[in-house]
Amino acid sequence: MFLPAALLVFSMSLCNLPGFGDGPTPTPNVTQAYQTVEARLTQALTLTPPASPQSTPSPSSPASPTHTRGPASSPVATTAAPPTSPPTEAKPCDQAAAGSPIDVTIPDDTVLQPGEAFTKIWRLQNAGTCAWNSNYAVTYFSGEQMGAPASVPLRGDIAPGQTVDIAVDFVAPKEPGKYQGNWKLRNASNVLFGIGPSGGSPFWVRIVVAVTATTSPTASTSTATVTPTTTQPAVQTSGSANLNPGDAIDLDSLAVNSGSGEDLSYESNADGKHPLVPQGSTLIGVYGSNQPSLANCQGANLAANPVIVDDQPAGTYLCYRTDQGLTGWARITGFNIDTYALNLSLLTWSQP
């Protein structure tokens, strides 16, 4: 590339030499000519700006797409909506729950003799929001009624959360076999309700009537071997009672604060204790943790001394003799250490 340019500059230089074309042609001085060409090339290179080098993109690097530059956008955080919990169902007004235990007497499949009288006591808790009172009753629902009344009213007031012992008198059928009677509670509007999550399940009494010995014929004679049956003593009254300090109860009828015939008063003494104090000729004594029979209470050590409720554990049985001479038992089923409310299950036999 430089040789043609040099020759061009050389030719122009010769044209500008003085006397060029006039007269005879002088012999050119080669050295001087090369010096002149070199000087002109140097001048030309000085005045010519250097070409900017161009970079050739690497074939292995893909072209980057052109983006319109703007403010950097922040990622939007997506917040998952909290799971929707099902609405809490309101407690029903009337609902019962099984107590601990639910069978205070006559556990399931208790063996009884044909025609034997017995008292079934259930322990239930008020699991609703409405208080129970004497307008409520335990009511026969289905199965075998076994000589029981169609309904038995509750005694006293049972607030939500409290437990109550409910007693019903029965007579075992005369035929051997297994028998079950189902019961529910009934409110003041004659609406039935029971236990369980929905409050619709009944509670029951289930017994087994024993098989008695029958006639055994022989070749010479015919005799009958009879197994004697034990007749249960008749019950005068049974049920439960809620007492607060200052209340009194008639053990012959289980009436509270009736004003007459009261056998026990529930008091607070100067020591901050809460005794059951016998009234009149009534006698009382601590029996223990097992349910006593009539014979047990008849032979118990009874006195006119008060029994301090604070000193007795829940479930303790007390034996008593009323001012009318009737024998019975009371079971401490609840004692509130804050309000001193006392809950008792009671049974009075109709004989001393």
Contiguous runs where pLDDT drops below 50 for at least 5 residues: 17-21, 55-70, 215-222
**What is the N-to-C succession of helices and strands?**
HHEEEEEEEEEEEEEEEEEHEEEE
User: What structural class do helix, strand and pairing data support?
Assistant: mainly beta
Mean pLDDT: 80
**What value does the Rg take, in angstroms?**
56 Å
Put the structure in a nutshell.
The chain has 352 residues and is mainly beta. It is built from three helices and 21 strands.
Give an overview of the whole structure.
The chain has helices at residues 2-16, 30-47, 294-298; strands spanning 96-103, 110-112, 117-126, 137-143, 151-153, 163-171, 177-186, 192-193, 203-209, 215-217, 222-224, 235-243, 248-250, 255-256, 264-266, 275-278, 283-288, 307-308, 317-321, 327-335, 342-349. By secondary structure, the protein is mainly beta. Among the domains are: 92-213, Immunoglobulins (Immunoglobulin-like, Sandwich); 233-352, no CATH class. The strands form 5 sheets. Strands 2, 4, 5, 7, 8 and 9 form a 6-stranded mixed beta sheet that branches. Strand 13 and strand 14 (255-256) form a beta hairpin. The N and C termini lie far apart (147 Å). The relative contact order is 0.11. Residues 17-21, 55-70 and 215-222 have low confidence and may be disordered.
